[in-house]
Amino acid sequence: MKLGLLLGAAVAPLAIAGAVSAEEIVRTPDYNDGPVTALTEVIVTGRPVLRNRADDVVPTLSYDLEYFQRFEPLTAGDALKRVPSVAFLSDVLEYDGVRLRGLDSGYTQILINGDRVPGAGVDRSFFVDRIPAELIERVEVVRSSSANRSGDAVAGAINIVLRDALSLDGGYVRAGALMFDDSEYGQWGQTLGAVWGGQVGPGRLLVGANMQDRRNPKFKFSERYDEPNGELQNVEAQTDVRDGTDYSFNAAYQVDVAGGELALSGLFVRTDRFQDEDSLEYEGGVQTEANLAVVNDNDLDILTDNLSLDARYSRDMFGGKTKIKLGYAMIDDDQYEFEYESEYLRDGTPYPDEDRFTADAADTRIKDEEWSGAVEHQRDLSGATLEFGVQWAMKERDSLIAEAPRIRFNVPNAPGVRPVVPPFGAFEAVPGGDSLIEETRVDPYVMLSGDRGALKWEAGLRYETTDITITDETADAADRVTETDYGFLLPSASVRYRLNDTDRLTVSAARTVRRPSFDRLSPAALEEEFGDSDFIGNPNLKPESAWGVDVGFERQLGRRGVIGVNAFYRSISDLVEEVNTGAEGSAGEGTFIYTVDNVGDGKVWGVEFDLSTPLDFIGMETTGVFLNYSWLDSEVEDFMGTRRFNSQSDYVLNFGFTHDIPTWGAAFGATYRKQGEAAARVLAEEVRTSYGADLEVFLEKRVASNIVVRLTGSNLLDASKDEVFDKFGNVEDQIDRKYDEYELETEKGGPVYQLVARMAF
């Protein structure tokens, strides 16, 4: 029924646009010279779009927006899920924190136009679902490190390159409807956008704006036992609807000034989202009113603003080329959450007679601002190129996490009206919730690069210095202000050797770091953070460091295809792990106070394969296929022995095809994604997570020389997220396998359909 409605809706714009003749607007795309016209992004090209064969010495996979465009991704996260080794540990249909090579998001460096951007996450990660896909020019997966980039890239880096003033000559508008699967006829949303680029005054200007509705309706079901294969205690049925709208505006201007080139750019993104979770808990697993034990209403209101401003000036001087950069990036995250809970079986009298009511509320405000700059110089030497410079950044992260006093009262078991819920009292900061983190980095570097015949190479040194001051108003007076500093020397080297006209070999080695998460630096005491035990942070934590190597082989297939395989290894030192201080916890005997310290080592390894090629070698030049598969593994020692790095998926698989029918001006294609199981073990809890497969399909029709319409469907297999939780009261019980609770949880989301039209002008 729903698909029929969409297909019917698709006929109308096709019929209307079909009246536009090709003679009215005739444009010929040029794939080789000058700015890329908007038309090349919206028409059916008659040939598949493939991965780029990057010319970088450092192993890099490059994907233009057109590689993802036909599946109409809403966000950068939707696009990134198709590239090798990118995993997510999000809810179904959510793609926020990139886990490159399956590792925690804090091990992956997210760059926008080559620069770091602050994120709201305590692990310094940036949620890529905050960037609308419409802003992207290309995405680069940088597998190793170079001296001229930040060393916070143990797993690698994702560089999201936004359109600049030279990207477009002309413009386009985009409009469409989205249908989400959470009612009989679906919930509808819209997406609107426009981009234009061209000559303005002495320079070139690009401006763009985008608005898109986002909705993610899910159903969760949990079964809780006293232990594995034990007695069923209760079940919980939950609906979780995330509904919001993203707004974005971007601009770029490029102009010649004083013998050099000045480039100015800005990006603003607003995420306005409301998350509504409602659940019913039933005793004994029997879903009747007589067994209804708890009714819970948990709502979260989110308003997040991202702002990024950038100025770059480059000019030939001092015997080479000098670049000066100045940037400002900010994230302002405001979240208000409340939870109402009604209990019905505390005295055995069933619903609707309520026994007790509880209300909680929390307000979280995080503002992270970062000023950055760089002075860099590059000059040619005899047989090589020398590049050196200094990059700096000043960060201020102001966090206020406050809670209102809990409201709780018993309700008489006689018929009548429940007492009026009083308003929440004054909000007060939670332990560790009122803090200011000031961080200053000054990172000089030097790098040599060159090529000789079939060999291309680069080698460099980077020295990163960090000074941190933490002011925590919730800590004891003696620990309220703490300071620490450290420095790391980060060498890197890469070589690429052309074996013949089609084959090349790449070898890279580099040292990288991962700075500690903000929540692990706070010296505030958190009661019963791990089961019944307490936790206190360590402001003197040092970064983890890693030595890594990548070895890759790549072959060109025909004129445009490419196939590659890459093996990687990381040896990580000074892992940040929880340790027992030996002091008794606030809950008394048998509990402890835990902290974190730099202890132990770990290693990560894997093999990555990718293929992107047209099938012209069998006479199907308008059919393209793509396949990437990453096998991932790791090893680390913790308080219970050997395990993988927490939540690292054991594989990531993507494959699909696109097929163009030039005589019809049409195309279609599909992509399939599957992510392997991930396991995590922390103090007092263990979890195993697995995901179902995701299938996406698109149909595309050119209805005029400058108009294309696409119908896409996502999550067509109704993918589920399945989790198994082993919960314990304390670490001793965890080691002895004395369960506090054993839980099975399944989360499902339905398909999402989009009907989108693009018109170039």
TrEMBL record:
Location within or outside the cell: Cell outer membrane
Domain TonB-dependent receptor-like beta-barrel: 291-716
Keyword Signal: yes
Stretches assigned to the TonB-dependent receptor plug domain: 66-157
Chief site of localization: membrane
InterPro entries noted in UniProt: Beta-barrel_TonB, Beta-barrel_TonB_sf, Plug_dom, Plug_dom_sf
Stretches of the chain forming a coiled coil according to its record: none
Pfam families in the cross-refs: Plug, TonB_dep_Rec_b-barrel
Keywords: Cell outer membrane, Membrane, Receptor, Signal, TonB box
Signal sequence residues: 1-22
Gene3D superfamilies according to UniProt: TonB-dependent receptor, beta-barrel domain, TonB-dependent receptor, plug domain
GO cellular component terms attached to this protein's record: cell outer membrane
Family as reported in the entry's similarity comment: Belongs to the TonB-dependent receptor family.
PANTHER family in the record: PLUG DOMAIN-CONTAINING PROTEIN, TONB-DEPENDENT RECEPTOR-LIKE BETA-BARREL DOMAIN-CONTAINING PROTEIN
UniProt protein name: Outer membrane receptor protein involved in Fe transport
Protein source organism: Brevundimonas bullata
